[in-house]
Amino acid sequence: MTPDDELNTTQWAAAIAVMLALLVPLAAALAVWFKKRYAKAVVRLQSDTAGLAVPPQHTVQGSKPVQQDTAELPALVQRVLPANAFSRAGVEHDPTDPARRLRRRVLLLQFTAGLLYWWTLLLVVVIAFAYLDSVTNERTPNSDALPAFVMHLLLWPLLFLPVALAWAFQAGLPERRVWTATGIAMAAFAVGMAVSGMGWLVGGGFALACALLAVMLATFVRPAVRGAGPPLVAAFTVGLLSFYALVWLGTLLDPSPEEELVGWIDWGLALLVFSTLLGAAAFASWRMLLRLARRYADKRFSELQLALGAYWSLITAFSLALVLLLSFDERTGASMEWLGLAMLIVWVVWRWLLRLALQIAVRKAPAPLGPLLLLRVFKPSSRSEAFTDRFLARWRFAAPVWMIAGPDLAGAYMEPDEFFAFLRRRLHERFITHADQLPQALAALDNARDPDGRFRVSELFCANTTWQATVLALIERAGVVMLDLREYTPERAGTHFELEALLRRAPLHKVLLVVGPHEKLPQLQAGIDTIWQSVASQRPVAARPATLNIVQIGSGSDAEMWGLFRAAAAAATAHDPQRKE
């Protein structure tokens, strides 16, 4: 041990672990702030960038509309079905089965691995406290007299909550249900702690602190934060560790500084040294951001894998800090140091085993369906993000997703390389500002799986003069097109253009229109008929009436999300029923 006024190595490690744990609120707040700034930057660049406009009626791939006599206009049948009507009952072959099996394997693997790792962390913490009790001869009062049901109330939220939170956001469960279950678990936890002898004030306060911690940690796996939050956590961690490493090297060079700072020259030199150390730490953080962006571009991990890595690394930091803080009791000796080292070894081994297990689970991944082009009526971000993320939590195991970046989802699917480009003020380089940039942008679309079996969401950044040409090109290449018409009105010029483009040139068996429960269907269908009458003459002659599928969703239940998934998969694998034999 060191003198009373100094800290030993284990205690310094405890202080560093506490500092890492305190990064949670800072990183979460900065991630939300950067997300808002990023969204504003995307909207501003969409307005500011200008290029060579491609006329809306131009056919990008050279397909020529077939003119025909107005007397031969094909009829349009609008089929409206509720999303939960697309069930597995009575279906001989469900096109979603391969993707569902892959999704089940990946989610089960991540849940099981997270549960085993979390229980291992808890075991180390329990061993640390048990050892402290043994050397201090202290026991928790009345612990042996607790009824079994009280211990269950006390333990079960702690055993499952961190793992369940991470799994729930991956699985696309409704956030309201997730937070309700979290609240119930925390209430049970508070009751268990209160009746175990800690009292209602201490038990409730501790449970509230755990609930706040759970909320902050869960932000890193939510789509609104995971684009910026995990990279910031990694950068801050590397910067903090670099700073402490440099300070430690300085103490090795001058292990016992006895001179005090007396003059302005001494203070100036000390400030210079401190600034140099901070600059070196900031440079290390910046290099970490660059490395993450490069590895993400090389498909070494998905954005969700990065988010889960940040999530579990922060939980590890909290557990490590809790164990190492016990080293401030001198009677524990070097035991806490060895337990902390064991925890770090478990962390490294667990990450390697999880990566290996994912490779095995994804090895037999099914062939992808056709890419999904997701078009939508721009609406408040919270509603767009909630619906889109829950649907894509299922679809991304089946096929890639293409979207046009817009103000509603700008930032919701911000990727690490996009975040880094934003920080470097080079986001404008990703915008399609001229028509001749379009082929290169389309060729660069990512259509390969990530290591966790998911496909990525590719957002195309377009200027106001090029987004229409981009939409037309994507329609011709997509395997299925989903147009979210909730909150649509004829005054929505952009959505009106997309609807008209679909009716003019898209194979209608690969088109899904999504409406809500409160949509005025007769007016909407009348508007679609009006557009159809103006564009039907430009379509090829059909052997039978065209059918347009309209899917109606209500509260957004799991059954409706699965039904919408099946409807989209069926459209992606369907053959053209209008083709003449």
Please tell me about this protein's structure.
This protein has 581 residues and is of the alpha/beta class. The protein folds into 2 domains: 9-37 and 102-139 and 223-256 and 274-362, no CATH class; 70-95 and 369-573, 3-Layer(aba) Sandwich (Rossmann fold), CATH 3.40.50. It is 58% helix and 7% strand. The chain has an 8-stranded parallel β-sheet, with helices on both faces. α1 crosses α9 (303-324), α7 (229-253) packs across α8 (264-297) and α15 (493-505) crosses α16. The protein is globular and about 95 Å long. The N and C termini lie far apart (88 Å). Residues 1-5, 50-70 and 140-146 have low confidence and may be disordered.
Strand content: 5-15%
- Record the strand order, biggest sheet: 1-8-7-6-2-3-5-4
Instruction: Output the CATH topology of the largest domain.
Output: Rossmann fold
Please identify the structural class as seen in this structure. Answer: alpha/beta
**SS field, number of helical segments:** 17
One letter per element, helices H and strands E, the order comes to: HHEHHHHHHHHEHEHEHEHEHEHEH
The pLDDT mean sits at 79
- Helical content band: 55-70%
Low-pLDDT segments, ≥5 res: 1-5, 50-70, 140-146
List how many beta strands DSSP finds: 8
Question: What's the N-to-C terminus distance?
Answer: 88 Å
From the alpha-carbon coordinates, what is the Rg to the nearest angstrom? 28 Å
Described by the principal axes of the CA atoms, the overall outline is globular
The tally of structural domains comes to 2
What is the architecture of the largest domain at the second tier of CATH? Answer: 3-Layer(aba) Sandwich
Biggest sheet layout: 8 strands, parallel
* CATH class assignment of the largest domain: Alpha Beta
